[in-house]
């Protein structure tokens, strides 16, 4: 309990709680579709989003930088971006089914990040050295990760719908999923915008790299570029219509897993980049 | 004949099912005939209010009675109107009549269990009779309670689960593949009855571009006119394949008219646009392996029938729950009516003779 109360973590826990309620309400909607009110799920996700935004803002004020100074904050930032995105594009989905998926994933990621206290170590104030460009690089990358996470979620929906149609299955859940065509269109847009944001982040990062190459680990460079190239290739193949929507969906899921795995080398680089960063200290 | 007391609500009716199909012709009643029956009931001093429900497979007269021999008179008029034997007509009174109305509204008494159209038809008949001032407080109460009961049944049970008609299932599948049908192009090859039903269902859900090809050009022209589509020559249907999002094959051809290579060629040109193939032909018009291609969704008549049967089974499994619920609701409504009647004399109550 103390862990939750410390340093505004209870606010993040409250945000995760909202996402949990949205998820359970979404599941209830699947059982009792006629008693389901999609506005409620949007309201509760919106409340969670605002609480999380306030918590992140407070952290930002405290550290005088974008609140992505440790893995806990990184996860919270990505889940915030995911929910913000889901509330924006969720209108395309019947019965806020997207809210159920994004709420569930955000809730899970938030709980994981809250459950591992060592992730929330005390980051040095002005971790990005007060350079707004490198903060922009990091925050844009996190927002694009929100897009890629959303892309992976809609890819799962696509594969579910596709498999059910091929197997001639009909259930109420499948009727609530968007159509194959709509999901394919959503994929393309998410891929396009996510790539655009990530490319902007990479470009800013490249400028920083040329100025302070000695502070960047080669591993971080390699993994970041590999994610960027992966998504770019996927986008180009989709634009040229060289691959089928099902392949795009599998590619998006694979790349999302890969993108999240690369967060660890990036995190390790942080210690290298800021040699004066205090050692991780547990809040417990 | 049996003696009953406090009989105030009566339904006399017949359905195609109850008359073993004999009612089909008589249901083609002219509006004037129904007006004549209604006027006759208006003039009858023993009938205080009435409602006539006529659909494509049922005709029923609901009335509240205020006279001793109203039941007999209504029955007599009913036989004369329909010209059918007495034993083919059903009569329910009071609580049984209330339960019957609830079953009708909920779709439990329909040929296709759980169908929703009947609820709209009852509502329409109720509104018409209300506007014409033909209903008594008793009839108002029973109809309102029955409509509420039907809504409860549809919300809380799966009596209306899925679709069970060929056209609606095809539309549902099309929407799961293509979403909004407003900008989708449909090609119908063969203008038989089954294909026609599917095309009409798709048109009713907003599909504006339907090309119809049939060996007999006249039939294609007639169907195209009906669904506001375009009639094309049967020799040229292959030219329209590339632009089509949904292809319905319903010809009597004994060989496949669309093979896997042709489908692969079409989808190869537009991989991000799915293709929905509906094969309603017997024997099959489309090569079965075409459905294995990515972004191609092939459904045969057998597949759609299986979905309909699954949905119907699901509905039937809810029947017992729905029936027992309506039983309780009808009992409660009728007890309330009797209680009000004995305490406040709100509804006209008479000791009458039942036929």
Written overview of the protein:
The complex is a heterodimer of chains A (284) and B (355). With 284 residues, chain A is an all-alpha fold. Chain A has helices at residues 2-5, 9-31, 38-63, 71-89, 97-115, 132-166, 172-176, 180-211, 218-239, 245-261, 263-273. Chain A has one domain. The model of chain A is unreliable at 275-284 (pLDDT under 50). Chain B is of the alpha/beta class and 355 residues long. Chain B has two domains: 2-160 and 318-354, Beta Polymerase, domain 2 (2-Layer Sandwich); 166-305, 3-Layer(aba) Sandwich (Rossmann fold), CATH 3.40.50.720. Helix content of chain B is 47%, strand content 17%. Chain B has twelve helices and twelve strands. In chain B, the strands form three sheets. A six-stranded parallel sheet of chain B has the order 8-7-6-9-10-11. A four-stranded antiparallel sheet of chain B has the order 3-4-2-5, with helices on both faces. In chain B, helix 5 runs antiparallel to helix 6 (137-156), helix 6 (137-156) runs antiparallel to helix 12 and helix 7 (166-178) packs across helix 8. The longest helix of chain B is centred in the last third of the chain and has 26 residues, at 319-344. Chain A binds chain B through residues 34-35, 161, 165-166, 168, 170, 174-175, 177-182, 184, 188, 238, 241, 243-246, and chain B through 154-155, 162, 172-173, 175-179, 270-274, 291, 294-295, 297, 299, 303, 306-307, 310-311.
List keywords for this structure.
heterodimer; A: 284 residues; mainly alpha; 11 helices; 0% strand; flat; disordered C terminus; B: 355 residues; alpha/beta; Beta Polymerase, domain 2; Rossmann fold; six-stranded parallel beta sheet; four-stranded antiparallel beta sheet; disordered N terminus
